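Subgroup meeting minutes
Present: P.N., E.W., G.H.
Scribe: E.W.

1. P.N. recapped why we're keeping a running log of single-chain structure predictions: easier to compare across weeks, and new members can see raw inputs and outputs side by side.
2. G.H. added today's entry (95 aa).
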Amino acid sequence: MESSTGSAGVAGTTGATSNGRPTLPPPGTRTSEEIRRDIVAQRGELSRSVDALRTRWVAATDLGAQVRKHRTELLVGAAVVGFLVGGALALRRRG
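Output recorded in log:
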C-alpha cells in the first residue's frame, strides 16, 4: 500500500507548518480512503505518544529511582535543613 506521506508523517498531508503541524489539503479534495488512512495514521501516532508519556510518567514517579539519581542533592539539602533547624533551636534556647 503506497501513501502520499507529507513531511509530518501523516498520509494525505501537503507539508508542515512552522509549528510542526501538518498542513491539510483544502476541504473536499481528499477521498474517503485518504481520510481513513489519515485516521489510522493519527491513531497510531496517538497510541505511540500515550505509550511514551506513560513510560515517562512511571519513570518520573518512581521514588526509589529518583532518590538514587539525586542522592547527592538530597544529602546536601538534608544537611542544610538540619543546620538551619539546629541553629533555630540554639537561638531559641539563648533567648
